[in-house]
Design brief:
The protein has 475 residues and is mainly α. The chain has 21 helices and no strands. α3 (64-82) runs antiparallel to α21, α9 runs antiparallel to α11 (227-235) and α18 (379-404) runs antiparallel to α19 (409-423). It is globular. 48% of the residues are buried.
Length: 475
Amino acid sequence: MSAAVTEPTPDARGTLPWGLAAGLGALASALVAWGSAHPEFAFHPDGWLDPVVMAIGTALPMPLNRVAVVLGAVVLAVLWWRLRPRAGRPPVGRPGWLLAVWALPLLWSPPTLSADAVLYADSGWIENSGGSVYAEGLGSAGGPFADSVDPLWRGSGVAYPPLSLLVNQAIVALTGADDYWSVAAMRLPAILGVVLIGLTLPRIAAHLSPTDPLAPGRATWWGLLNPLLLVHFIGGAHNDALMAGVSLLAVYVVVVALETPLGGARSRLLVWVVAPVLVGVAMALKQQAGLTVLAVAGVPLLFRLRELPLARRLWVLGLRTAGVTAIAVAVFVALGVVTGKGFGWTAWLTLMGTAGTPGPFALLGQFGGYLVEWLGADPAPFRFVVGMASNVTLLAVLAWVVIRFSDRPVAAVGWGSLALAVLGQAMHPWYVPWSLALLGLVPLTRRQRLWVAGFVVAFLVWNAFQTVVWHGYVD
């Protein structure tokens, strides 16, 4: 007689009814949206160029608008943590609908905690006007967005690849180049990216952890419900969202191919053509999507990779990755040529290092440069050396990650993308949700879960506080 299996005792501590969670999240995002609508966060001297938005924003005077933004971020962080999956308690139900309720108050508001969407709109206007933002720089064509461009970036080009510019052009054309709604509508491609994340994560998680029924819910908690995604992908309308969605779609296509019975030629087509092409498309939205080649190459070999010794495993994974990379890079280059936009983005790759961010190398370059300047020397050579040190360190860490997780390629992409976000010359909170979606697909130790979740909460709250203190703008 077999021993009875004891079911885990449901953990009722800290549980929240779905409706209460939806309401609290919507209230928190409404606070972020309301505070962001204040004209101090607009770089245009007349504030946000929509009378209704201006009326809403000025109804919450300073400094209450700043308090609202920070309080909303804190509530979102606490709510996310309270909804985390635990032993004996299933993940929150209908996560996609829950996120939709949370996101509703953000859809009308100006970009939250970042003005990058204004840069997208201005680049779309420049390109639609026959100019080149690579050659002429932001604000160069006049038009409805030039006066709203952050002075830090005005006159500079962008490092966004061609497909990203095409998306910006389409949104500006779709909205009739409206000076406010073209900016707000930059959320449309971001929302598409979030939808792709929500649709692909559960099936990828189930494939990677077939014996764990809670894996899909855990993946959506990390990858879909995290507050950085809500505030910065949807609220901030960042183009990282569509890149992340398309890169996960490439991995999803591989999973579909592997789960197709007797797939044959169809499966090979999906694995060797469709998925690598999607990686190339994601790279043409934002270049760091190229890391996805590891997952696309490695997922079909998971069981074999786990059985091979390290040297043989690296050889097998390396050969397959080289093949996937060749196709993805060919698509990336072809899009640069076919669109006629070329590769002018390469001239602006170091520009992001000029933004003040909390990345270790960014802080070293910024404050070390101030010290060198105070001593009477030119800070440019020092900052160049710091940039090179950042690149060398990042390459070394990425190499270690690939070797360490060569039997877990999705984990390699997750940790690698997080290293890219932290150790690059700029560390922005909208770089992190893609990493969280990938890390949510793989088993994490308790220590890893606590460290990553703590990083998310701390970065969200710190960025909200730092933005309202230092980035408020009053003409």
